[in-house]
Amino acid sequence: MSIKVAALTKVYGQQIAVDNISFEAGKGVLGFLGPNGAGKSTTMKMLTCFIPPTDGTATVCGFDIGTHPLDVKRNIGYLPESNPLYTDMYVKEALAFVAGIHGLHQPAKRIAEVIELTGLGPEQHKQINELSKGYRQRLGLAQAILHDPQVLILDEPTSGLDPNQLIGIRQLITELGKKKTVVLSTHIMQEVEAVCNNVVIINKGNIVANDTLGALKQQNNNQSLEEIFIKLTNQ
Ligand SMILES: Nc1ncnc2c1ncn2[C@@H]1O[C@H](COP(=O)(O)OP(=O)(O)OP(=O)(O)O)[C@@H](O)[C@H]1O
Predict the structure, then answer these.
(1) Would residue 140 count as lying in a domain?
(2) Residue 226 — φ and ψ, nearest 5°?
(3) What is the pTM of this model?
(4) What is the pLDDT of residue 57?
(5) Residue with the nearest Cα to atom 5 of ligand 1?
(6) Where does the record place the ABC transporter domain (predicted)?
(7) Which residues of the chain have pLDDT under 70?
(8) Total number of domains in the chain
(9) CB-based burial of residue 106 (10 Å sphere; 0-12 exposed, 13-18 middle, 19+ buried)?
(10) Residue 77's pLDDT is what?
(11) In the prediction, which pLDDT does 165 show?
(12) What CATH number should be reported for the domain holding residue 24?
C-alpha cells in the first residue's frame, strides 16, 4: 500500500478537525468524501507534510510524514483545493520553475509530455492570468504530476469546471489511477462513480465508510452513492 494512515489526528484549538483516522490506499483512485468541514483538506495537508498532525502518523511509499517529509514530498504530487498559481508566469515558465524545484534532468522533454497529457497544448503560450478556470486546473494537475510521483493527492480538482472540461480531467485522473495511487476529494458523486475504485467517507473528523464502491452499495441495498453519503453523514 502506498499510503498508510494510522490514528491520524489534528486539533486546531478547540476544534477536532481529524479524529484518530486510519485507512490505506494502493494503486487506483480512492474517493475521499465528506461534507463541508469534515476534515478532508486537513487530512490531505497532513499527508503532504504541509501541516503536522497533532497525533498519529502516516506513511507515503514507506516514508513517515513526521520523520521523512522530503522523501514523502518526492513521492507525492499535490493539487491543493485553492490551486495556488503564480499568475504572472507563463504556462511553460511555471512548469519549468516546478521542474527546477524537483531537479528534473530533462525538463523540456517532460514539460512537453505533461502538456500533452493534461491537454494544455492550445494554451501553452499564455500567461496564467489569461487562462480559464479549467485550464488553470489542468496546469495545477500538470505541476502535480511533473515529477512523475507514485502518489497523487487531488483536492477538488474539478470544482467549477464545465461539463466538457470535467470529462477531460476525469479521463486524465482515471488514466493516472491505472499506474498510481490517487486520492481524490470531490463533492460530485457522479464523479466518484465514474473514476473511483474505493471510497472513504469522513464525517466530523471520523471515518464512517471505507470500502470498494461496489461493496459499499451492496451493503446499502444498492442505493445510489448520494443516498448512502446523505445517510452516513447525517447520523
Ligand atoms: N487553520 C485552521 N484553523 C482552525 N480551524 C481549521 C483550520 N483549518 C480547518 N479548520 C477546521 O477544521 C475542520 C475541517 O476542515 P477541512 O478544511 O479539513 O474540511 P473539508 O472536509 O476539507 O471541508 P470542505 O469540503 O468545505 O473543503 C473545519 O471545522 C474547519 O473549520
Answers:
(1) no
(2) -60, -45
(3) 0.94
(4) 96
(5) 12
(6) 3-229
(7) none
(8) 1
(9) exposed
(10) 96
(11) 81
(12) 3.40.50.300
Residue 123 lies in a domain: no
pLDDT value of residue 169: 87
Identify each DSSP E strand in 87-129 by its residue range. none
**How many angstroms is it from 110 CA to the middle of ligand 1?**
35
The count of C-alpha atoms lying within 13 angstroms of the C-alpha of 73, restricted to the half-sphere facing its C-beta, is 12
In a domain, 164, yes or no: yes
Long-range contacts of 50-56 (CB under 8 A, 24+ apart): 50/78, 50/80, 51/10, 53/8, 53/9, 53/10, 53/18, 54/9, 54/10, 54/11, 55/7, 55/8, 55/9, 55/20, 56/5, 56/6, 56/7, 56/8, 56/9, 56/20, 56/21, 56/22
Strand partners, 32: 185, 200
Check residue 133 and give its pLDDT.
87
Question: How many whole angstroms from 42 Cα to the centroid of ligand 1?
Answer: 6
Packing angle between helix 91-102 and helix 133-145, nearest 10 degrees? 20
User: How far, in Å, CA of 5 to CA of 229, rounded?
Assistant: 22
Could you identify the atom of ligand 1 that is nearest to the CA of residue 45?
18
Range of the domain at 27: 3-81+150-234
Which residue's alpha carbon is nearest to atom 28 within ligand 1? 37
- C-alpha gyration radius of the chain: 18
Q: Measured in angstroms, how far is the CA atom of residue 204 from the centroid of ligand 1? A: 10
Distance from the alpha carbon of residue 85 to the mean position of ligand 1, in angstroms: 21
